[in-house]
Amino acid sequence: MNDLQVTGLVKGYAPGTPVLDALDLTVPGGCLAAVLGPSGCGKTTLLRVIAGFLEADAGSVTVAGRLLGGPGVHLPPEGRRIGIVPQEGALFPHLSVARNIAFGLTGRERAARRARVTEMLDLVNLPGHGDRMPHELSGGQQQRVALARALAPEPHLVLLDEPFSALDTGLRETVRADVRAALQDSGATALLVTHDQQEALSTADLVAVLRQGRVAQCAAPQELYHRPADPWVASFVGDAVFIPATTDATTTSTATTVMGRIPLAAPAALREGVVLLRPEQLRLAPASEAVAEGTVTGIRFHGHDALLTVTVDALAAPLLVRAQGPVPARPGERVGLAVTGSATLHPAP
């Protein structure tokens, strides 16, 4: 299988200040993994080291069991069998779509190249577009051609560097789904670098969150969202609500809070800390069901839902409540609150 194995990777641009600091990452063959993180955390540097554009200071990169970079080893980009889809496609403007896709197929006979180009155009849902020039394509079509070009030589790994960031919102979702489907159909292993959390969660099989040059957590999207490794990861991936909580030796499966007793997703080892809830786990409730009361102090309307800021007297920080449909309250209004689902308990940040 075309597994990606990154072990103890170190890379810096100035002495004593590594951008990648003993980073470890494993991506199973055939998996699409997304890399998330704040600016400066090392996302682009990681991509460039894996691609071979930069040589690591320490550590190793292995793809499909083949050492690409490590102590005394640094294969050039063209020798790594890695396909790259850059941010804006970067098609050769003077070459047709077919010739762009065939660019990396040197060494094959003409008939084989032609057949592979046709196969790739079908894979990315652009049959019959081979004679067109890049400027005749939409932005989304150009990105799909860039993917076809990257997949044509049958690489062991495909690297995607924020490939959807230049597209408008509606087109971005469509192209993202097309690219995801094409990667699945090809069986390729892929690494997607993105700053868009929703893109990572909705597209990838695995999401790796980078913090200060290391992987803070790598997990399936649902596990990452519902069971983050720590409060920082929780706050970085989506909106988070933290409420002070305590447990005792006889009730490690629940936490006591000002919002009542909240069940925990796993038995707690801590006696006090904060429980993590997502805003959709809080709901406005009638007095007969409410476990606390608060005052609505702000509303952010998103169309499909609204995010309400609610101040509860016993809490220092306001709560975020996600409400579906029409906005159910106004600023200044007193509301009852209830909790649904389970929480995770963390040390107080």
Give the key terms.
single chain, 349 residues, alpha+beta, six-stranded mixed sheet, five-stranded antiparallel sheet, 8 helices, 34% strand
Unreliable runs, pLDDT <50, ≥5 residues?
none
Strand order of the largest sheet: 7-8-9-3-10-11
Q: What is the global morphology?
A: globular
Number of helices: 8
Q: State the end-to-end CA separation.
A: 40 Å
Helices and strands: which structural class? alpha+beta
Question: Major sheet, described briefly?
Answer: 6 strands, mixed
How would you sum up this structure, described in words?
- Helix 3 crosses helix 4.
- The two termini are 40 Å apart.
- This protein has 349 residues and is α+β, with helices and mostly antiparallel strands.
- The chain has eight helices and 21 strands.
- The strands form five sheets. Strands 7-8-9-3-10-11 form a six-stranded mixed sheet, sandwiched between helices. Strands 2-1-4-5-6 form a five-stranded antiparallel sheet, covered by helices on one side. A five-stranded antiparallel sheet has the order 16-20-17-18-19, with no helix packed on it.
List the helices and strands and how they pair.
Elements: E1 4-12, E2 18-27, E3 32-36, H1 43-51, E4 58-63, E5 66-70, E6 73-74, E7 82-85, H2 97-101, H3 110-123, H4 139-151, E8 157-161, H5 169-186, E9 189-193, H6 197-203, E10 206-211, E11 214-219, H7 221-226, H8 231-236, E12 241-246, E13 254-257, E14 260-263, E15 272-277, E16 282-285, E17 292-301, E18 305-311, E19 319-324, E20 334-339, E21 344-346
Short description:
With 349 residues, the protein is of the alpha+beta class.
